[in-house]
């Protein structure tokens, strides 16, 4: 009984953090039952995770944008346009992949700096700036693809970024991708070590920590989840390069937002920009960085999407920004700014991708899919507002 009460108290205090995990678990359980287990099959889970890669990357950048109480509506067509630029450089100019990727990412940074300059220096609302950007880059995409409509990318090295899997030099277990299992085990060990280290540091400075029984339950649950997903992926083709790239991006941004001065400044600006100014934070520089980061990740998203399709199309980027915004909000980003984690936004992207995959397996009509996803977004924001009101 005491354990149940402790668990209930922890969920109440950390409902924003754990609510999305509960929602994801419920969605996967329901769709697995309704699809007779097809939803949780190795092939479907692998395709689901790989297909959300380009949105997950966008969601990471969008998290920071929303945290500082701005918005970027241009990222979808920035991704589509820069994906087409990458395809053009590879096919028309025969540039190597190692040259194309840095060039495209650099262009993304320049686009973001321009957006950030208009927002931070000229004080133009981000909604207006990025709405204009959406129209401009949609036109630019149409211009780049005007001759053929679709630019086919025959470069296999580039395409492997979107459809390839990491090699398995070990091959110890027949039928399974051994390297994926090893990496999963190492990640579980790292997770357990980091949790103990974090708890020790909190106790050292007399911060509040969860009861030890709840702490162990949480570690076992998350470790099981990591192990199960790793097992499923290893039963198919293992980890894809898309997943590896997403994990690297999440690791970098998670470290930056939680362990660096820049990360603290970003959340300070989102919490109260006037107070941040008075405390000596250069709000304009923070804004410039966040917009540059967003467009750079949009460029990476465009590369992932183009590599996955092995071509650049006139419709690339359509709706990407809406999926990224929805993923961030479902993942716990506050509509009032100042609150949100990149790891949460990744879970939000997984929730939205799971909904789409599950509804496709059940042959739910496209019209109902849009309605359901919209309803989920509204519920996420209502939940955020109610949580903030209760905490006041």
TrEMBL record:
InterPro entries: ABC_transp_permease (IPR001851). GO terms for cellular component: plasma membrane. It is found in: Cell membrane. One of its GO terms (molecular function) is transmembrane transporter activity. This is Xylose transport system permease protein XylH. It comes from Proteiniclasticum aestuarii. Pfam families: BPD_transp_2 (PF02653). It is a multi-pass membrane protein. Its main location: membrane. Part of the binding-protein-dependent transport system for D-xylose. Probably responsible for the translocation of the substrate across the membrane. It comes from the Bacteria. The chain crosses the membrane at residues 21-42, 48-68, 75-93, 99-119, 126-146, 172-193, 214-233, 239-256, 286-307, 367-385. Keywords: Cell inner membrane, Cell membrane, Membrane, Sugar transport, Transmembrane, Transmembrane helix, Transport.
């Amino acid at each position: 009984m005491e354990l149940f009460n402790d668990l209930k108290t922890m969920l109440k205090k950390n409902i924003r953090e754990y609510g999305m995990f509960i929602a994801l678990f419920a969605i996967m359980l329901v769709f697995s039952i309704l699809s007779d287990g097809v939803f949780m099959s190795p092939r479907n889970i692998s395709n689901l995770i790989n297909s959300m890669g380009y949105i997950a990357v966008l969601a990471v950048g969008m998290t920071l944008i929303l945290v500082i109480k701005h918005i970027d509506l241009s990222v979808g067509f920035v991704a589509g346009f820069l994906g087409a630029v990458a395809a053009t450089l590879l096919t028309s100019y025969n540039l190597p992949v190692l040259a194309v990727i840095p060039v495209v990412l650099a262009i993304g940074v320049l686009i973001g700096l321009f957006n950030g300059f208009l927002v931070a220096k000229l004080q133009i609302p981000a909604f207006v700036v990025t709405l204009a950007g959406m129209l401009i880059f949609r036109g630019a995409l149409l211009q780049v693809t005007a001759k053929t409509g679709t630019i086919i990318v025959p470069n296999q090295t580039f395409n492997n970024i979107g459809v390839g899997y990491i090699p398995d030099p070990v091959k110890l277990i027949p039928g399974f991708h051994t390297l994926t299992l090893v990496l999963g085990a190492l990640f579980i060990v790292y997770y357990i070590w980091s949790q103990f280290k974090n708890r020790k540091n909190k106790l050292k400075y007399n911060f509040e920590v969860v009861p030890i029984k709840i702490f162990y339950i949480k570690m076992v649950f998350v470790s099981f989840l990591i192990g199960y997903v790793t097992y499923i992926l290893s039963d198919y083709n293992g980890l894809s390069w898309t997943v590896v790239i997403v994990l690297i991006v999440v690791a970098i941004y998670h470290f930056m937002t939680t362990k660096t001065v820049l990360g603290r400044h970003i959340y300070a600006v989102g919490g109260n920009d006037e107070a941040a100014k008075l405390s000596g934070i250069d709000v304009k520089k923070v804004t410039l960085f966040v917009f540059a980061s967003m467009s750079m990740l949009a460029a990476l998203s465009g590369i992932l999407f183009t590599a996955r399709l092995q071509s650049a199309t006139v419709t690339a980027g359509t709706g990407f920004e809406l999926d990224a915004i929805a993923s961030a909000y479902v993942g716990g980003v506050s509509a009032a700014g100042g609150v949100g984690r990149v790891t949460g936004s990744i879970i939000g992207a997984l929730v939205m991708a799971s909904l789409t995959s599950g509804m496709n397996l059940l042959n739910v009509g496209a019209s109902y899919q849009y309605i359901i996803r919209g309803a989920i977004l509204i519920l996420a924001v209502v939940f955020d507002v109610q949580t903030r009101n209760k905490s006041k």
